[in-house]
Amino acid sequence: MIKIFVLLLCLFFLSDSGLVNGSSSKHEKIGVFELKKGDLSLKVTNWGASIVSLILPDKYGKLGDVILGYDSLKDYTNDTTYFGATVGRVANRIGGAQFTLNGVHYKLVANEGNNTLHGGSRGFSDVLWKVGSYQRDAKNPSITFTYSSFDGEQGFPGDVLVSVSYILSEKNHLAIVMKAKALNKATPVNLANHAYWNLGGQNSGNILDEVVQIFASKITPVDSKLIPTGKFASVKGTPYDFLKPQVVGSRINKLASTKGYDINYVLDGDKKFKLAAIVKDKKSGRVLELYTNAPGLQFYTGNYINDVKGKGGFVYQSHAGLCLESQAFPDSVNHPNFPSTIVTPEKPYKHFMLFKFSTS
Fold it and tell me: pTM of whole model > 0.70?
């Protein structure tokens, strides 16, 4: 089943779907769009190309929403937690909000101290995307959002056409396909989905009892500002070791400086498409498997969520959800030993995620 699905996604990758319609979204209106297949129901919005909700059955057949978020679209436009958002032009952090490319020094908008986080103060999560296509009644329901990022946006060079597609391909499968095409200049691109998952249900409390397995033997250690040092470190013998399934909260108190997990994992294996992580919620029986072609995975446990009023009036607190952000390594543009994030007109960007859900 996975092999067949990968073939379908390869065909999707090879197409120019989403990139040929990258015109301005200035006439678009913010809205919510639903995709349904079997018991799985996905809602997304063109504000930030964001996931609003994902409803799945638990082991008893009871449906529940496993994505943190808001009731009101207005709340998404004022969001500072990146709930469900597509983040970019460069996800994660760029140290000193600057980099040099092809002999040109670029100064970016700093929005986390002296550093740039998730593309700057107005990254891709804070703009209105165009609805490129919406096939809600297809065998594999899908929607594609497009955005035209202009030369100099938040300090980044070059015009870039970007697309994000959400596809319900098989029973309880959600695929996310991200593409970017540089039109006239080389530029860094690193897109990620910033959904906060709680498999017990978005209003069930925290994720400290969920069991996580991450298929990575190394991390990219960071300084006090969460900027990578450029080195690699083994997870063996540390709280970051999830090579075998571990309860999220079992060692989290050893990470006092960050109040929890917020680190990039170097995914194991040479396969272009690999299993990155598995999450299990014992009470509901829900299981999430994430496959990706990205080299890294940011594991974040919602450490700084505090009194955020979410869906149905439920108030989210620290560790209310966890993020599994498949990505290039943070600050790659300033570390030549990291996999390159540079996209050119001849070398487009493609990022694929498959979330496979089940119960046990």
Answer: yes
